[in-house]
Structure prediction request, 519 residues.
Amino acid sequence: MQAIENIGVGSATERLDESALIRDAQKGDSEAFESLVRSYDSSVLRMAYNLLRSEEDARDIYQEAFLRVYRNLPKFRFDCSFSTWLYRIVANLCLDQIRKRKVRREEPSALETGTGELNRFDLVPESRADVDPQRQLLSAEVSARIQSVLDQLTPRERLVFELRHYQGLRLRAIGEALGVTEEAAKNCLFRATQKMRSALGEFV
Amino acid sequence: MTCHQVQTNLSLFLYGDLDFATEDALEEHLAECPACQLALDREKAWHANLNAEHADVPLDLLARCRRDLEVATRAEGNAKTATPFWERLAALFGVSTHRWSERLAVASLFLFLGMGLSHWNNRFNVVSRFASPGDLAEASLLGRVQVRDVRPIGDGKVRLSLDQIQRGEVVGSLSDEAVRRLLLGTIRNSADAGLRVDSVELLMGQSAPEVREVLIHSATKDPNAAVRLKALQGLRAFQTDEETRSTLLSVIQYDDNSGVRSEAMEVLVPPGAEIRIAPDVAGAFQHIIRSEQEDDFIRLRCLQILQAASTSRIY
Prediction:
C-alpha cells in the first residue's frame, strides 16, 4: 500500500528516480529492473493473495504480471504512470482468474498456505476478542460474514474495493487500471460498500 | 441532504472520494444529526474489521516469487541473446555464417557499411537530423546532448541546435601537455565537483605555470569547498610565489568556509617551520585579529603566528 500511495502522490524526485530506473531497465539493466520490481512486488503479491486466497494463484499472478512487464517494458512510452500500467496488468490477470474460478460459488473460506490451510477466522487478532468467549464468537462471526460478503461482490466490485480500501489507490488510478472512467469506478465502489454495509453494519 | 443520502455515502466520505459540495453538505448534516453520527461510527467500525481481515503475505512466499521471477527473466534474457545480432543480420542477407570464408565476407561487408555510414554521418550530420526527438531528449537528460540555441521558425515550430557529446578515451602521462590541458579544462569547466577534486589531485606536484594559474583560480573561485581545499593543498608547491601568497591571504580573509581558511593559513605558514612572514602578511594578520568575529581558530592562529614572528623576525 505504501508503494502505491507513494507513486500516487510521490514527489517529483521519486518520479524522476523511477523514470530513470525504467529507462535503465528498458536498456537491459537487470539491477534497475529488479529495483523497479521491488518497489511494487509486495503490494502486488498481497493484493493477489487476498483476492484469490491461494498462495499458488498469487504466485502465478506475480510471475505472469512481472514477466509481462519485463517483456513489454521496452515498449513502455510513459503515456501513463508505471504504477497504473502495472496495476492494469495485475487487475486484468486477477479478474481473469476470479472469473475463471467462479470465486463466488467455489471459494472456500480458508487460505491455502505452504503449511496447509489457514482458516480466515484465525487471522482475526486475538486481542480484538480479548479473553471473552462471547466476544471471540462474535469476532469469528464477523469474520465469516466479511468473507461471505466479499464473495458476494462481483469480480469487478471486489477488485475495485481491494484497490481502494486495501491498496489505497485513487479512483482515477483505479479507473485507468481497469480501463473505465473514474465515475464508473466510483459507482462500482459505491455498490461494493452498500453491500458491505448491509452485511456488516449490524455486527459492529 | 437526507439521512439516507448521508448514510449511503459514508464510505466514500471516509475514503475522501466525494466531490467538494457533497462532502460539505454531508459534514453539515453530520454536525446536527446524532443518528448519522452513530452511523458514521458504525461505518468506521466495519472498515476497521475489514482491515483486520486482510491477510499478510507469508514472507517466504515473496522470497519464492522473487526467485522464480529472477530465473524466468534470466531465461528470457538468454533466449533473446542466444543468436548474435550479426548472425541474425547475416541471415537477412541470406548468408550462412558457418563457413570461414563467408564469415570473413560478412565481416568485411559490415566494416565497409560502417565506415561508409560513419563518413556519411560526419559529412551530413545525419544522426542529429534524423534521430527522433525522444532519443535526443533522453540523450540530453544523460548529458550527451546540449542545446546550443533555440529559435522559433513559425507555424508553432521551434528549431533547437544541439551539440552532441562524443565519448572517447585518452591515455597518457601527466607530463603530456594534451593530458594536462584536458585535466586543467576539467578543473575549470566540469560541473562535477568530484571530477574537479580528482583532477586537482592528479596535478598536484606539477610545477608548470598553467597549473599554478588554474589552482589559484580554483582556490578562490570554485563554488565547492572541497575543490578549494584541494587546490590550496596543490598550491604548497608554489608557496614562495608572490601571487600564490596574496591568493592565500585573500582566502584567509574572505573565504566563507573556516576549513578552507585554516588550510590556507597552514599553507601560508606551515606549522612547525621557522616563522618568517612578510610585512604585508603581518598587517593582514593584525587586521584579522582585530576584525574577526566568528572564527576563533583563525584569530588565535594569527595571534600565535604574530607572537612567534615577533620573537623571530618579520622580513
Observations:
- The radius of gyration of chain B is 36 Å.
- Chain B touches chain A through 36 residues (CB under 8 Å).
